[in-house]
Amino acid sequence: MLNRIAKLGSGGINTLGSLGRAGILWGMALWSPPDWRNGPRLLAQQLYSVGVLSLLIVVVSGLFVGMVLALQGYNVLVRFGAVEALGQGVSLTLVRELGPVMAALLFAGRAGSALTAEIGLMKATEQLAALEMIGIDPLRRIVRPRLWAGILSMPLLAQLFNVVAIWGSVLIGVDWLGIDAGAYWGNMQDTLKFREDIVNGLIKSVVFGALVTWIAVYQGYDAVPTAEGISRATTRTVVYASLAVLGMDFVLTALMFGVY
Amino acid sequence: MTDRTAPDDNLIEVRDLHFLYDSRTILDGVDLTIPRGRVTAIMGPSGSGKTTLLRLFAGQLRPTRGSVRIDGREISRLDRAELFVERRRMGVLFQSGALFTDLSVYENVAFPLRVHTALSEAMIRDLVLMKLEAVGLRGARDLMPAALSGGMARRVALARAIILDPQLILYDEPFSGQDPISVGVLSELIQRLNRALNLTSVIISHNVGETAEIADYLYVITKGKIAGHGPTKVLLDSEDAQIRQFMRGLPDGPVPFHYPAPDFPSDLGLGATSC
Lengths: 260, 275
Known about the structure:
The structure holds two protein chains of two kinds.
Chain A: H1 2-30, H2 39-51, H3 55-77, H4 86-124, H5 127-134, H6 138-176, H7 181-191, H8 194-221, H9 227-257
Helix pairs in contact in A: 1-6, 2-6, 3-4, 3-6, 4-6, 4-7, 4-8, 4-9, 6-8, 8-9
Chain B: E1 10-21, E2 24-35, E3 39-43, H1 50-57, E4 65-70, E5 73-74, H2 80-87, E6 90-93, H3 105-116, H4 121-134, H5 150-161, E7 168-172, H6 180-196, E8 200-205, H7 208-214, E9 217-222, E10 225-230, H8 232-236, H9 241-248, H10 264-267
Parallel strand pairs in B: 3-8, 3-9, 6-7, 7-8
Antiparallel strand pairs in B: 1-2, 1-4, 4-5, 9-10
């Protein structure tokens, strides 16, 4: 019994310690003085590897999600003779929820895992230690550009996901199932509110981007520098980041659209 | 205990150094002195605390107790920014080489110059080629680290470690896993660079033969304590059991051949219980 309590306490202390280290990493990486000489170039490199290289999976997934939404929505709406409402249903679902959340989950799987594995391997091959010994802070050189790249890329990826998904839904709803294009687009435009829907969706994706990238770089930086350690850290990134995105989505949705 | 030169002649002074990791004692009251301009080796069996000592010199770890002074500055009292400035005056050759895998040989060596200086590209090129020539790899400048052998990777890492002309260079197991030719090349380079660049070199190693040959002075560390120190010959002739076992590579001694285990017959079930 005493052992179990001790184990529980030790687990709690480890979790708190881990959260503390992650907080320190966040603070030191983001709030240290900017490096105007190398910073923009490093950020551009990371925007490419974190953002541009995630484009394919986000665009293809967006297309299929939009097409499936349109098919499912049509099958329900057609029973009530309200198929013209498909555009507004699909767009609201995407812009408020599915766009930011799906893009963030895909981002965690594609870019998050890559970030963790990259930083973990840099640690295992002593590249982070070598940077320190050359007199360069790895938090500023390695962690900071990756964090900012995640925070900046995520809203763009989420918006692209929305655009492609809406286009996919038009392909199915309008071009295949024959819903009137004017009604489809008109209903969508009438329903979507810039402040309430678009901006809130953007805020969500910025928060998700920060969350996923933070978890990914921390897991890499804190990984046990062995093959098994990096494998575990990469898995943890995808699991923790996915759960964090879904949990945070509920919190943000409650704050933005909750009953008040 | 170990002051063998006047304080001004010493680059590193370690006093009563203790280091605990997860309440396990790694270093237990280490005292040593590294004189300027010499090659000093810190040797000992695996797990004796050598690499921890190197990381304490570099400020990557903070001592639990005691002092590490480099050029008169207490390393453990420097804040993060001061430490990064101090490290520009040290070079470290990591066991794996630790080359940046996304940069070519040339860019790896040029990296510290690009980050810390505002030199022109032509000047950077000259300096990089000079250092690569010194380690015999000027012709490999365009190769990526993945295309290098282990020995070549360490030579490139050595060129990178000396590109900012440090006063101190720390070698972490420079010979382990190397073929005899690479060992010969690295030994020659360590000696030659130490003389030519007026460096102070510290070699952390468990390879007795190669290290003893090039070091001016040896420290032997076992179980987190300095077991002995002196010139190579003195240590080779030492009657101390720990030093004798390590220097002569004896399979049994203070470091036992058998990992602690219960009595063998009883482990096999051949004890008093036979019926």
